[in-house]
Every structure is written in C-alpha cells, then in structure tokens.
Sequence to fold (307 residues):
Amino acid sequence: AGADMPVLVRGNLDSGVFLVALHGGPGGSGLAMRLSPGMRLLEEDMAVVYWDQRFSGMSQGNPSEETITIPEYVADTEAIIAMVQQAYEVDKLFVYGHSWGGDLALATLATGTRADVVDAWVVDGGAHDEWFAMAESREWMVNTIDGYLADGIDAEFWAEVQDWYEDNPVIAPANLEHYSYVSRTEGYYYDISSYEEPPVVELAFASPFSMGIYRNDDWALRLNLGLLNPMDLNDELPAVTAPVLVMGGEHDGAVPSTVAEEIYALLGTDPEHKQLTILPEVAHTPRDEAPELFVETITSFLEDYER
Fold:
C-alpha cells in the first residue's frame, strides 16, 4: 500500500524460534528497539524480527495518509509474519508488542486472519481500549500530582498541572500534553538512573540507522496519533483463545497495570494458556529497566510453546 518498510532479523536464527517485535509510539522504531538490553538478551535464545511500521522510523515509499488505519497496520503485521515464514526455517513463531505495539498485537490477534500461525503472543504495556487506558493514566497522574504537592516538590508547576487535569476530566488518547506530564514523572522509567542511554549521536551515522530516524521521530508520532482514538477491542477479546502473556509495570503511568489486568480478564483464552505478570519496580519499559527479569518472564512463558 505504498510503504517500503525495513525489516532487520538478528539473533539466534539456528534456534528456529522467531519473535516478531512490534514497536510502540505509534510512530516509533522497531530497528531502534534493538538498542534495548532486554532485546539483545532475547536474541541469545531466538531470532528477533525488528520492523519499522509505515510512517515510522526509517520507513520510506509514498503511502497515502489514508492508510494510517488499524486494519492497514494489521495487514502490514500479517505481511511481516508471512515474510518470516517464507524466508526462514521457522519451527516456532511468536509475536511481542510493546506499548502501541501491544495494541497492534491484540488487534492482529483479534481481527486479523493469520492468528493461527502464531504459537503465542506477548503484550507488554499495551492497551485494548485506548480511552480506558487514558482514563486510568489520568487517574494515575492525578494521584501522583497529589503526592508531589503534599511533599512540596516543584509545587508551583504541579499546581498548574493539577488545574489542567481539573479542567480536562476526559482526555482523548491522542492528547500529547498529558503524555508530556507523564514524562515529567516516573511514569515511563521508574528509576531512570538504572538505564544507560545508547549513544544516539554516534548511531545516527551508523548502519542500519540514519539521521532520518531521529529527524522524523516527532513528525511520525504526531502523524500516527490518530490510530489511538479508535482502538477498542472490548467486544473482540472474549473470542480470543490463543496463548497470551500480558505484562504490565507496577509503576507504569502511561499505561497503568490496571489495563493489563483488564486485558487478561477479557481474553477468552483458557487460564492454562494465558498469564498476567505485573513486574515490580519498573514503569513502562521493562526491557530497559529490568532486562533480566523481562527476558525471564517472556522465555518462561514461551518455553511451553517451543516444544
């Protein structure tokens, strides 16, 4: 549909186990996900398929903005799955989605046509209903602000933000101002000091990256935000029977763990084949904050489906 989307496959190809990784944003970068220490650890056990979605990362071509729809992104995901099956000796195939990528994984699982070729799914910090997720995130922010004000932390600023939330009792999922406030808290990284940022300046000149992946980042996010408002799978999830691991961060302010709990409850999957794990002392990005725990949680779930 007019988009040229780069795919990077790295890791243990000899394992026959392939994990298709769906990046967040929307408008993020799958290739940049490989900079995460948690993803590098996963590569030791399996092959990881990184992919930049249309209008994201280093995707090119000349697609119409009319293709920024959930069904189109589901079709792209299924094309990636088909490509992996055609190009490699695949024994087991898994899908991992983080944040918006978790939304996309659920949408592909619930509304797509190729769910039966995937052995198991992992949803990490994703949402099935972005309006519900935003309401939960708003409540998380209100409680966090109350704590800051009680402790006298940057009181003038947070008092103004508190007024903003009082003026906005209902916030649309695509509201960037809300997420800018979440980023001022520990809602994305519970302990940012535990994560070492990759050398992004040097990487801008290193293959497979380019300056475009950084120059287009903000543009891609704003262009893709329209995907969030219509995301609602409340009616579809009860019909899902596939194995699913639902992960959430204990301190996630962007997509609070209550969203993961709701996804788990709605899934029609037999309890023997679905799992809910809320990771302690992490926020929205456990693959960066607690890479060993992140990998242990995923691999221990998937090993039942690698046989």
